[in-house]
Specification:
Number of helices: 11
Strand content: 5-15%
Structural class: alpha+beta
Helix content: 40-55%
Length: 370
């Protein structure tokens, strides 16, 4: 789930800003917990270890439906190669260096029992305490600039991942977000508030759009044609993206959801989140609707510029992977479903169901209008 308050589901890339107060924890002599949050699906604890070193521990909650697993050895090797390429691209000096910079991949490690307890968990070593999910809508100008820059970094790294074909001699792992969505659509996950939302969404969407949602989810879960599957992060989001307070690089938590498939799934996952936040803000929904104004189009354009390897992405969406708009729409449905199931009922879900219906009816086109 995204790293934002759980009240409801909810220009050129600037130069490196000064460190915002929001990402500077008070000094401590030893390791100290600086943040804890989560849902019934996942609990997250952020600890500060001194010298700008942080660990993010992600532990399954009571509603988590599967063990947390690391990527296969072959996929792990590929991920480390991508990270090395990202590091090399960003190691140049001078004004052109940022143009090739991407988000570094922080690969999760199995947490020790002393850290995570009986349920286990995954720990990530990162240079920051707060994700873009918190910084982007915070109302702090420096935090916003840091977030936009991080989203451009994310776009570049996703493109690096998608340049790697899935040729590891092993089956492609399932896409867990799509798996949860399909179980919910079919009624195979009949939890209380999730089932209540399913009935509401079925009514709000009607038979035609419910069938469209089902067809899109089934098609997205099917592997691409021969040679079409690439290395995917599996669940990129602003909550997995952690900028360095020093402004030198961003880090993308990576490992638990790694899979292979259509590149549209990764890119659409982030665009769907930004579309949801923009729409929620415009409609006064949840935390996004109550917070300060946010220029979400500039944030999305930075992501797209990074992915398309362009200075400016205001231009075109033709170069995006086919199916990106559909994937972004599915991301909207997954987050709505996850909120009901793992956080609980909120009356705003009625209006989120209407937003999903409108986006489906437009074939997902609003998710690409930035």
């Amino acid at each position: 789930m995204a790293d934002r308050p759980q009240a409801a589901p909810v220009p050129p890339v600037p130069e490196a800003p000064a460190v915002p107060a929001a990402v500077r924890p008070a000094g401590a002599a030893g390791s100290v917990t600086v943040r804890e949050y989560g849902t019934r699906y996942l609990r997250i604890s952020v600890r500060y270890h001194g010298d700008a070193r942080f660990s993010w521990l992600r532990v399954p909650g009571p509603a988590h439906d599967r063990p947390q697993t690391a990527p296969s050895p072959a996929a792990g090797v590929a991920l480390r190669r991508v990270d090395a390429a990202v590091a090399d691209a960003g190691s140049g000096a001078g004004p052109g260096a940022d143009a090739g910079r991407g988000a570094r991949l922080a690969l999760g490690e199995r947490a020790a029992a002393s850290e995570s307890g009986e349920r286990g968990g995954v720990v990530y070593r990162v240079p920051g305490a707060v994700s873009v999910a918190r910084l982007l809508p915070s109302g702090d100008d420096t935090a916003y600039r840091l977030s936009v820059r991080a989203l451009a970094d994310l776009g570049r790294t996703l493109r690096q991942l998608h340049d790697v074909p899935w040729e590891f001699g092993e089956p492609v792992p399932p896409h867990h977000g799509l798996g949860r969505l399909l179980a919910w659509i079919s009624g195979a996950a009949p939890d209380g508030d999730g089932a209540r939302l399913r009935a509401l969404a079925h009514d709000r969407l009607g038979a035609r759009l419910w069938t469209r949602l089902t067809d899109w989810a089934v098609a997205a879960q099917e592997p691409p044609g021969r040679g079409g599957a690439v290395l995917l992060h599996g669940a990129p989001s602003t909550g997995w993206l952690v900028p360095s307070p020093a402004g030198d690089h961003s880090v993308l938590l990576t490992g638990e959801e790694v899979t292979g498939g259509d590149p549209a799934l990764d890119l659409g996952w982030v665009l769907g989140e930004l579309h949801e936040l923009r729409s929620a803000a415009a409609r006064g929904l949840g935390a996004a609707g109550q917070g300060p104004p946010v220029d979400y189009p500039a944030a999305a354009r930075a992501l797209l510029a990074g992915y398309l390897r362009k200075e400016d992405a205001a231009a075109t969406t033709e170069a995006l992977p086919p199916g990106t708009a559909r994937a972004a729409t599915l991301r909207l449905a997954v987050h709505m479903r996850d909120f009901a199931s793992f956080v609980g009922w909120h009356e705003d879900l009625r209006r989120y169901a209407d937003l999903l219906a409108e986006t489906l009816d437009a074939d997902g086109a609003p998710t690409l209008r930035w």
